[in-house]
Amino acid sequence: MGLLWLILFLVGASFFGFLLPVATLSTPFLQYLLQAVILGGLAYLLWRSLDDSRRSAVSRNLLIGTPYFWLMALFLVPFAIVLKISLSDVALARPPYLPHFDWATGIGAFLAELDFENFVFLTEDDLYWKAYLSSLKIAVISTVLTLLVGYPIAYGMARTPAEWRPTLMMLVILPFWTSFLIRVYAWMGILSNEGFLNQFLMWTGIISEPLTILNTNTAVYIGIVYTYLPFMILPIYAALERLDESLIEAAEDLGCSRLLAFWLVTIPMSKNGIIAGSFLVFIPALGEFVIPSLLGGSGTLMIGKVLWEEFFSNRDWPVASAVAIVLLLLLVVPIVLFQRNQQKQQEADQ
């Protein structure tokens, strides 16, 4: 009976603390701390009141529900907010869109003011669908180039002696120890007209005048390939490392050359690594903003740049949110395909 009264007291104190903050506490932090202590004590007492079977069931449900909670808090809730903004209208207000929810008018009146005008606007303005197509083209070409560069590196790593592989793996991930922004700025210095690359080519006599590389799509491709190359190398290396050498020897015994055995055995056996690496490069490259902004020029049209300009230059949050929603829907397809490929790979390993 005493436990029941204590629980009722904590429930009442928690309710009082949330609705009527304690006047004696001078800062909101202390108020929230008191509320957290009260709720923590309530949860502890409820936990102690359960028997072992119910504790096991609650623990299992909490373990399963935690990822879903984080998914809801960090993805679904922000997505719902952005979706709501995309259905609003731009306005000179804070925040710069209307309508805002008002308890006095109710949710019915609030939903009645939402519309799909911004999504219709995206279909009417050539800038947006051209930006989507340009981003798709750059992402596909960058993914292919990254695969062409990364596969030989991963193959060489998988064929080196075992004692050298940790060192090579460290060298692959070593760029992640440096800020992404600093590395992109370094490429600006390398690719500029007075940069290291042009100076080296002129010193060797290969060119007589500097090449214009910076502020072009070529510089964007170089930046994306350099930045996302480890994401291509690591999955392919993981697939090639597990490759059974006896399969290649068997193919050669049956009359295949080294090149034909590589094409018929090694490439198919590393298919899962190629697919995983391609998705890991393509998905972030499609919405890339920093690289095209710093290395690309005014003619480099990518949806990430358009999204930033709508948010921060034009202050048109509804249109920017609509652009972000469409981009997210475009990314859902490769993300789902990537997850299915991962599931198939796990089932094959089992």
Primary descriptors:
mainly alpha, MetI-like fold, 76% helix
Major sheet: arrangement of strands: 1-2
- How much strand? under 5%
Shape verdict: globular
Rg computed from alpha carbons, rounded to a whole number of angstroms: 28 Å
The major beta sheet can be summarized as: 2 strands, antiparallel
The class by helix and strand makeup works out as mainly alpha
Low-confidence stretches: 1-8, 14-26
CATH fold-level name of the largest domain: MetI-like fold
Whole-number count of domains: 3
Give the CATH level 1 class of the largest domain.
Answer: Mainly Alpha
CATH architecture of the largest domain: Orthogonal Bundle
- C-alpha termini separation: 53 Å
Set down the secondary structure blueprint.
Layout: H1 2-19, H2 28-49, H3 52-86, E1 89-90, E2 97-98, H4 106-112, H5 117-124, H6 126-159, H7 165-173, H8 180-191, H9 196-204, H10 217-241, H11 245-253, H12 258-269, H13 271-286, H14 290-294, H15 303-313, H16 317-349
Antiparallel strand pairs: 1-2
Helix pairs in contact: 1-2, 3-16, 5-16, 6-10, 6-13, 10-13, 11-12, 13-16, 15-16
Could you characterize the architecture of this molecule?
It is a single chain. With 350 residues, the chain is mostly helical. It folds into three domains: 2-80, no CATH class; 87-119, no CATH class; 125-349, MetI-like fold (Orthogonal Bundle). The chain contains 16 helices and two strands. Strand 1 and strand 2 form a beta hairpin. The longest helix is centred in the N-terminal third of the chain and has 35 residues, at 52-86. It starts with a helix and ends with a helix. The model is unreliable at 1-8 and 14-26 (pLDDT under 50).
